[in-house]
Amino acid sequence: MMRVEDADPLHLVLNATRVISPTLIQYELGSDIEVIMMNFLHSMREAYDDIMVVSFYDGYHTMRKYAEAIFGADFVDDIFNGSTLVSVNSFLEDQYGPTKRILTTDPEIIVGRLLEITGSLQRKTLVLLLGLDFYGIRAAPTT
């Protein structure tokens, strides 16, 4: 018999994340998924030693401002305090002190640098990708 708490979407995502890693949550900014994502991150924060945010085109800045308007800056700071920020082609994220900046639009270079960064992680780290919706899929050259 299914329990009521088992039907809670946040509970389902948390359980899936504990079993299957990584979990990809796809969303659009300005929707209710930020509420789910922030509650998810708050619940999972203690299970990880670090959070690494990979932000494309200021995705972290945009998501953070939206979350601060809903939850308040202190709640958001508690989640992201001490996290690692990798900014890819950002314009507004200098205020957050990115650990690494990637300034290229070449997908192969971006992936190579991200693999280098994530490959050197020593601790249990939750990696959060934001802003990928600004990237398109390149068609293969025709012959």
Counted beta strands: 4
The chain-level structural class is: alpha/beta
- The fraction of residues assigned to DSSP E strands is 5-15%
Helix content: 25-40%
User: Could you name the CATH topology?
Assistant: Rossmann fold
Uncertain segments: none
Computed over alpha carbons, the radius of gyration is: 16 Å
CATH architecture: 3-Layer(aba) Sandwich
Strand order of the largest sheet: 3-2-1-4
Number of domains: 1
Look at the structure and give the CATH class. Alpha Beta
For the record, give the distance between the C-alpha atoms at the N and C termini, rounded to a whole number.
Answer: 57 Å
Overall pLDDT confidence: 79
What does this structure look like?
By secondary structure, the chain is of the alpha/beta class. The chain is built from five helices and four strands; from the N terminus they run H-H-E-H-H-E-E-H-E. The chain has a single domain (4-134), classed as Rossmann fold (3-Layer(aba) Sandwich). It has a four-stranded parallel beta sheet.
